[in-house]
Model the fold of this input.
Amino acid sequence: MERTDMKNNHTEEYSTGQIRCIEKSDPEYPQIMKQYSSMPAKLYVKGRLPDPKRRTVAVIGARMCSPYGRMQAFRYAKALSVAGVQIISGMALGIDSEGHKGALEGKMPTFAVLGSGVDVCYPKSNRKLYERILWENGGIISECPLGSGPVSWHFPARNRIISALSDAVLV
Done:
């Protein structure tokens, strides 16, 4: 594992890809997030950030959902994706995961905002989804420092990032 000083160039090189630390003062920090005072001072990003020139819709919902709910989350995300809309969610089990899968099926990048560090896939059972999001030119985003595990209070905090990056939220 090769590491470079994050303070100087904002990157860390890992065998699975590059992780950037983007501070609020950096030009890459999402402009839309700068208008809200509650946004984090820095974001960690693996892969890409959503394209600010494209519409972005959050697909979010229950972890323990019905088969019907799963099917609808997938179908809506796929239809939006086919129409050129980026999908953002939290990669949680249930509705979030189905939204990401639908977006990938529709051939648009999707973006996951985690309640852990971007180098910590949570839930672990979503490892293939995590890797596919990156493979398909999407991104993994978090305000949590690298190595941070999932902690219950991280999840409500990450929701404000999902909301800020979205033009609409589908619940």
Remarks:
- The mean pLDDT is 89.
- The two ends are 40 Å apart (CA to CA).
- The first strand starts at residue 11 and ends at 14.
